[in-house]
Amino acid sequence: MGMRPLGIEGAWVFEPKVFEDERGSFHEWFHGGVFGGATGQGLALSQANLSVSRRGTLRGVHFADVPPGQAKYLKCVRGSVFDVVVDLRVGSPTFGRWESVVLDDVDHRSVYVSEGLGHGFMALSDDAVVVYLCSEGYAPGREHGVDPLDPELGIGWPSEVAPLLSAKDAAAPALAEARRRGLLPAYEECNRFYAKLRA
Predict the structure, then answer these.
(1) 92 is a domain residue
(2) 79: domain CATH number?
(3) How far apart are CA 129 and CA 80, in angstroms?
(4) The pLDDT value given to residue 54
(5) Which of 11, 44, 53, 167 could tie 85 with a disulfide, CB 3.0–4.6 Å?
(6) Is residue 166 part of a domain?
(7) Does 40 map to a domain?
(8) How far separated are the first and last CA of the chain, in Å rounded?
């Protein structure tokens, strides 16, 4: 059991030990000590969400203004999803880079996405159920999105699954347009915010 950092600073995968027997299985999907040891902070919980998605549903790429942003700790409790973290922090050494992790009800991995990073996922199964722990509640005025199909981002969504987007996500600006409009968080501002969380 442990948290493995992804190649994008501020994103981790939690890989639990799953105990199975003839009755079923048991695992911890969040452990405060392990989380704090990896991230250097606690997980503030302001809101918990659950989404149910049919195969092909593509949610994201979403992010929020920093401060306070919205960190997310999430897992897929039924089915499977292709989960993506995108570095949207202007000035970051990995700006525009994305990484993916398959979250499912077999390996039971969880992903932590720090404030300022973009997040999205595509459902690989029908009735894919994802639960999220969020550091801040939903606030429409500071929530934004980037086009998940933007060729500049080049996210490698599974080609065998046709994407199904909400009208809002389909209308989200491309990365370059979001940057031009000043919607994207600044890497320096995010780092100042992270330092406060760890103090």
Answers:
(1) yes
(2) 2.60.120.10
(3) 8
(4) 98
(5) 11
(6) yes
(7) yes
(8) 26
Catalytic option among 27, 31, 73, 132: 132
**Residue of 27, 31, 62, 138 marked catalytic:** 62
Q: Give me the pLDDT at residue 199, please.
A: 87
- In order of 83, 84, 123, 185, the CA distances from 58 in angstroms are 10, 11, 7, 23
Domain that holds residue 41: 2-16+27-198
Residue 171 is predicted with a pLDDT of: 97
List the one residue out of 146, 140, 153, 150 whose CA is nearest residue 173.
146
Residue in 127, 131, 129, 139 with CA at minimum distance from that of residue 73: 131
Q: Which residues of the chain have pLDDT under 50?
A: none
Looking at the structure of the chain, the number of domains it has is 1
In a domain, residue 21? The reply is: no
What pLDDT, on the 0 to 100 scale, is given for residue 1?
72
As a dihedral over the C-alpha atoms of residue 34, residue 38, residue 42, residue 47, rounded to 10 degrees, the angle is -90
